[in-house]
Amino acid sequence: MQQAVIFSNISKDFPLDGRKIRVLDNISSDIRLGEMTMLVGPSGCGKTTLISILSGILSTTEGRVDIMGAALTDMPDTKKVLFRRKNIGFIFQQYNLLPALSAAENAAIPLTAAGVSNKKALARARALLEGMGMEGQTEKLPRQLSGGQQQRVAIARSLVHNPKLIICDEPTAALDAKTGLQVMQILRDIANEKNRAVLVVTHDNRIFHFGDRILEMSDGRITGDYTTEDFLKKEHIE
Amino acid sequence: MNKIALKILMGDKAKYLGLIFGVSFASLLMAQQVSIFVNLMARTASVIFSVSEADIWVMDTRVRYIEEVEPMRDMELYNVRSVEGVKWAVPFHKGLSTIRMQDGLTQQVQLIGVDDVSLVGICPEMVLGDERAIRKPQTAMIDKNGYVFTWPGQPLELGREVEINDHRVIINAICSITPNFITFPTMYVSYNTALEVAPPTRKKLPFILVKAQEGQNLQRLKKRITDQTGLQALTQNEFAWRSINYVLQRTGIPINFTITITLGVIIGIAITTQTFYMFIMENLKQFGAMKAIGFTNMQLLRMVLLQASIVGLTGYCIGIGLTALFFEVTKDAPALQGFILPWQVMVGVFCTIFLVILLSIVFSLRKVFKLDPAIVFKG
Q1: CB contact under 8 A, B290 and A109
Q2: B214 shares a domain with B110
Q3: Is residue B57 part of a domain?
Q4: What's the rounded Cα separation, in Å, for the pair A178 and B228?
Q5: Does the pLDDT value for residue B379 go beyond 60?
């Protein structure tokens, strides 16, 4: 399977009270197209730092990251922003929708940032939202939508510019169980049907089975790379 | 992108109105306080500005401002008239006198004596009667505010009798003037009547008003007058500014007003900075999400500048509008009569407001620029 992301020997240090704290310690792995990869591990193990580095938001202290064949770690910050805008979609735990914008306008933001005309961006965003069962909801403000609907808008926002890599940070954390499963099914379909790489950071063991592959982290290291079946067996999850 | 910026700005109506209110209040505070101060200071020279016919004021060299009168000898008028380039020169009396009314009460007035023939320096706007009436002996004209102040609640009418230093004077005209700094009623009489009713002194001529011949250079004419007569000669503007500066430097009024204005400006700046800074800070997470999604710092800067321009311009217009409305509503109140909103104040307030907004943008955008977009991954 083709690799969307390859990261090799990544380390990340943060300064604290005059010393350096190593948050990621020499980790390597990859994220593949057509797969949903789950990144799991206890709080503070470095999951958020890893996805921040893979999305070009944080720089590495050591190591190299390649996304779709481009060396992210060699890019200057301004180029990283433009690369991120074009190639990566984000889904956040708290949705992070702009409260003053309608669902369609929120979903269209990556296209707007890229300079696509308002009309084209909104048409594409509406089509995506309607494809996710949001007919009649596209002009509503986020506060008029349920949590599940807001997360769908966030998913549409992550897809509107057609990126190959989708990074999801605890996408079900703010949702009830039923809505969480629905959202995960949408993400799963995106990974499999559209040949995209979907990386999901989660604590929620109820959604592990949606993944094709699970990377386990502990104390800044990747301690396991499992198929979902193997991982569920290891963790004794039904 | 501009649409997004405007929607973020106006999306929360309460916050948006709070921002507009803050900037409007700051503009109002600054524009109103500074205008009142400027107008009040201009009143110190209102007598000078009201004599529009003269180019040059001639006076004793010891005179430092309009309220300080050092009379000259009568013959100085002829000396000034003999200077080359002088078209005409007329006497002008200005002093304080006490009038006694028929009921025995007294009132201090500013007594202005203008040349009997030309009436140069007379109040230009009549309310009742005819200014030429003061050519008659023992006749005076009083300003409307002074009349109301002296005879409160009584209708404006001509023919009232008052005493000035035991001389009977009849008020046969009422005019409207720009109120002066000392706020006493202003009474106009002919120069000869002024000499008659004013307390007797050896020298009697306070000021000489000079009109230059066509094409004369005023600075050269002033120098010729000083060289030939030994008197002090100042253009209208020079004398006005000297009077304003004297009040600014020698009295506590400007200090008090400066404190008020400074406080007004500081409060205005604080409100504007605080409200705009808070607006940016409250939207920090949204900016973080936008940065993560792929907005560049320059795009965010453009959005914030647009938001700041809208808030600044709207708030400024409302503030200036309210200031203008304030002066319009209070235009008949004697204390504020004639006060205007000078264009220089409008420009100054505009620059201050936008400078303040720019500074608050610089401070708050530093946070946005340095903002770690990873903030959006932190729940």
Answers
A1: yes
A2: yes
A3: no
A4: 105
A5: no
Asked if the Cβ–Cβ distance from A100 to B11 is below 8 Å, we say yes
Contact A90 B292 (CB under 8 A): yes
Q: How many domains does chain B have?
A: 2
ipTM for the assembly: 0.80
Residue whose C-alpha is closest to residue A28's, from A47, A8, A42: A8
Kindly give, in sequence order, each residue whose CB lies less than 8 Å from that of residue B31, ignoring residues fewer than 6 positions away: B319, B320, B323, B341, B345, B346, B349
- Tell which residue, B207, B203, B188, B204, has the closest CA to residue B56: B207
Which residues of A are less than 8 Å from B293 in CB distance?
84-85, 90, 109-110, 113, 157
For A96, the token pair is: 């992070």
Which chain B residues are within 8 Å of A67, Cβ to Cβ? none
Q: Which domain holds residue B331?
A: 2-43+252-377
Residue A79 token pair: 């180029």
pLDDT higher at A48 or B178: A48
pLDDT tens per residue, range A177-210 = 777 888 788 888 888 877 789 999 988 888 888 8
pLDDT tens-digit profile of B71-89? 898 899 999 999 999 999 9
- CB neighbours (10 Å) of residue A196? 22
In a domain, residue B237? The reply is: no
**C-alpha distances in Å from residue B364, one per residue of A88, B284, B288, B303, B359:** 28, 9, 13, 13, 9
Q: Which residues of B touch A (CB under 8 A)?
A: 1, 3-4, 7-8, 10-12, 285-286, 288-296, 299, 372-374, 376-379
CA distance A100 to A141: 7
CA end-to-end span of chain B, whole Å? 26
For residue B33, being part of any structural domain is answered with: yes
CB atoms within 10 A of CB B298: 11
Residue B286 to chain A, least CA–CA distance (Å): 6
Q: Which of A78, A90, A101 is the closest to B4 by Cβ?
A: A101
Q: Which of A138-147, A183-192, B94-103 has the highest mean pLDDT?
A: A138-147
In a shared domain, residues B100 and B211: yes
Whether the Cβ atoms of residue B97 and residue B108 lie closer than 8 Å to each other:
yes
Separation of alpha carbons A9 and A65, rounded Å: 9
Beta strand pairing call for A62-67 and A70-71: antiparallel
A110·B294 Cβ contact <8 A: yes
Cβ-defined contact of B374 to A52 (cutoff 8 Å): yes
Whether residue B77 is found in the same domain as residue B156: yes
Assess whether B189 and B333 both reside in one domain: no
